[in-house]
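Standup notes
- HV: blocked on the assembly model, inputs below
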Amino acid sequence: MLTVEHVDKSFPVMHGFGAMLRTLTGQHIPRRQVLFDVSLRVGRGELFGLLGPNGAGKSTLLKLLATLTVPDRGRMTIDGIDVAAEPLEAKRRIALCASDERSFYFRLTARQNLEFFGALVGLSGRNLRNRIDECIERVDLTSHLDRRLGGFSSGMRVRLTVARALLGDPSVLFFDEPTRAVDPVHAEDLRRLIRHELVEKGGKTVILATNLLEEAWEVCDRVAVVNHGRIVALGPPRELDAELGKVARYRVTLAEVDDDLVARTRTIPGFRDLRIERSERGVDLHVDLDPREGTLGALMRAVSWDGAALRDFRPIDPEAIDIFKKVMNDGGRG
Amino acid sequence: MAVAVKRAPASPLAKVGAIFRRDSIVALSYPGNFALSWIQIGVEVVIALYLSSVVAPSAKFGASGEVAGYFQYVVINFAFVRFQTAALSSFAEAIRDGQLTGTLEVVLATPTTLPVLVLSSGVWSFTLTAMQTGVYLLVATTMGLDLGHINAITGLVFLMLTVAAVSPLGVLAAALAMVIKKTGPVEWLSYSSASIFGGVYVPVHSMAWVLQVIGWCLPITHSLAGFRAAAAGVPLGAVASDAYWLLGAAIILMPFSLWLFVRAVNKARVDGTLAMY
């Protein structure tokens, strides 16, 4: 169990020598608040998503949990251990898969990097070597193990951050945009690794920060939507659909469309919107429906009621940008 | 098939070993720079030889007041002042590099204590410096350095005390690097203060009394006095005051510097500057 209770976090807007001088002379340094009264609970073995645009506060929340920064107010626990009071004990249970793929020693090979970080989490000897082989295989980098990091692509380095996080077999893992800069095939592999291997088979607790709506919806048990430092929605993805105004969008292509068909379509349960366009395929109906059970069947019946010539029917992926725009416009402005 | 993960609480020694290995691999991955650091030894000995050709032998240069050549005096100082330089650069550079690359955050997310982290980052540098100092002395003996009367016990004791006394300065430099994000001023200040007040070029006791007071306050002054005495075969008891000074400095400065470093890291945690470019 992982808890975050009423956490506020702010950062000073200036650093370094100038800030030190201002502090010594008693001058106030303005601070920018990045998290506002954030509370959440993540169950053991749960895959919890933090979804939000850049700068929403997702990475800050992960760094707070990883003891890399401290809250202005509030309390966080991991398996009952207070993160602020017992940071070393908390760190024995966690691993952070940082979003910064530069966080390696570029003059060292992948193996030497993993040996170094493995030693810091308590692995040694044959156990360390076996663990490195296993983790590197999981991210499909076995053939690159003895190459220097300087020759790795961004995507490969990101995958290596995942291997590094897995080394110590922690019970809680924080992934900060793990598929950023990764090609689609390996991104899919990483999602499968997180969902099936770590959470479902391994029983790990995972917090996944992402700005990809589809990623959060696809793999997470629950998602907290974060914007401007506040959690503006929280729940299982399907429940959030309605809350965030997400729609199931379909494109139906027919040879011809008459007024009756349009009228039938407009009266099906969960109807939201209809747009009609002529194309070289025929007539495209762009239909938005509530994302609940039954609406798709009703649409199919409506458009095929009197034997209309159906040429094509396909679901259209929801636009993440629409969701983000709605979230940014509706909620969380401090 | 999944490998059962046997994860023992990592011993501090294992972590020191890992950090030593990392630093040595990084250093050796720059073969040109590594080779130059050895070539520099020969250059410095030649400079010392040249300086000694224009400075007459004097009793000021003798460890016990005996007349000694300037080469004997300055080459020992050149050889051992490197320990202070190593301390002041290695700790701070390790921390600053970690901030710049983002590795410091990842390391701090592991169950590694701050004293282990910061003190380990000087181990490779001290080891290399010790090896290079040995070669330095060897090269210098071929050019006239007399080590025929060396007192090994005095030398070893001062070696340990020097590392113990200058390491806190390195830790303090690392704490400062956390705040001001640069290490250059610290290195410059340490080198120039050692050169001017620490007696590297001119014996402290021939300087104005104000400068002598400043020099007395610097660990390197007492270290160099001890090493010169060891080279001249002076027993440890004769330089006990310098040894006690270094011991006292280590006892007082080590916990203080670690306390300050922990505070600097905690401040960086609060300010979100563990990774800072």
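- HV (later): unblocked. Residues 70-101 of chain B form the longest helix (32 residues). Chain B has eleven helices and no strands.
- Next: hand off to the docking folks.
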